Amino acid sequence: MGYMMDAPRSVGPMIKILRDMGQYRYDPADVFRDWIDYSVGCFLVHGDREMAERMLAKYKADYVQLGNLLRAWMEVMDKEIADDGRSWFDALGTVYEYLASSSKRQWLGQFFTPPDVCDLMTQINTDPAQPMRGKRINDPAVGSGRTLLSFNAYHPGNYVCGEDLDPICAKMTVLNMAMHGCQGQVCCQDSLRTDDWRFGYEVNPLHATGGPPIPHLLPITKEQSVAWQVMQSLVREAADRKAEPKVVVPPPIEVKPKVGQLSLF
Fold first, then answer.
1. Which residues contact 44 (CB under 8 A, 6 or more apart)?
2. How many domains does the chain have?
3. In this structure, is residue 246 part of a structural domain?
4. Are 93 and 172 contacting, i.e. CB atoms less than 8 angstroms apart?
5. Angle between helices 167-179 and 91-101 (to 10 degrees)
6. Band of the pLDDT at 259, cuts 50, 70, 90?
């Protein structure tokens, strides 16, 4: 089979651009990673000029292909997502897995939960007939965001958060959540050590204030991270419990029964 001709048909338009760029000059895996950064910059409310200049210097005349790849992604999403209210599609994770299966790059080292399993997990843990709203939902090892996308498809109107130590995965989740209309946060950090912080984004924050339904992102600090705030609260509660004086419970008094006949005198 020809070069990159065995890709899933669902993401064919995206793979075609990566294939065209990879045939003569670039590694498709590197292009995909750069394109993830490019797309995050495009979704930022204030943009990312430094990133744009860096990509332009690297790709020169081929810089326009990054925009074409972004357009191809949006067209794939428009085709794959139905209007049934419970449809979602992870094109980014699908492309990532395809590149991982054909690349020796160490940073392409993850495969994600199959979509049907994600939907099954959502239905097992919640009642689709009784939608949840106003809750905080967290996935501490979010990957490309599939479990959160599934939950949001069944239960829109919640605040979804995800964390991952892999920066590419965190950024894919950011883009997936933004494109699917989720509201929440995504952080690149160690979920077991929340002070090991890399970066984070608020996803679609203006939707809550009546803003237009356009995907957008805002960078956040560690102190603005909901996951970090919750962890700090738990640490303080544990410290307070440890500092509380211990109540000393005296040992029970041993009562020895008298043995023998009773006497009235």
1. 216, 217, 218, 219
2. 1
3. no
4. yes
5. 150
6. low
Asked whether residue 188 is domain-assigned, the answer is yes
Q: Could you report the per-residue pLDDT of 2-29, keeping only the tens digit for each?
A: 566 788 899 999 999 999 988 778 999 9
Q: Is residue 38 part of a domain?
A: yes
CB atoms near residue 157 (< 10 Å): 11
Report yes or no on 248 lying in a domain: no
pLDDT at 3: 63
- Quote the CA–CA distance of 122 and 34 in Å, as a whole number: 32
72-129 tens-digit pLDDT: 999 999 999 877 667 999 999 999 999 988 766 655 667 899 999 999 999 999 987 8
Q: Which residue has the tokens 């946060």?
A: 185
Q: Domain range for residue 68?
A: 9-237
Alpha-carbon Rg for the chain in angstroms: 26
Strands 159-164 and 183-190, bridge-based pairing: parallel
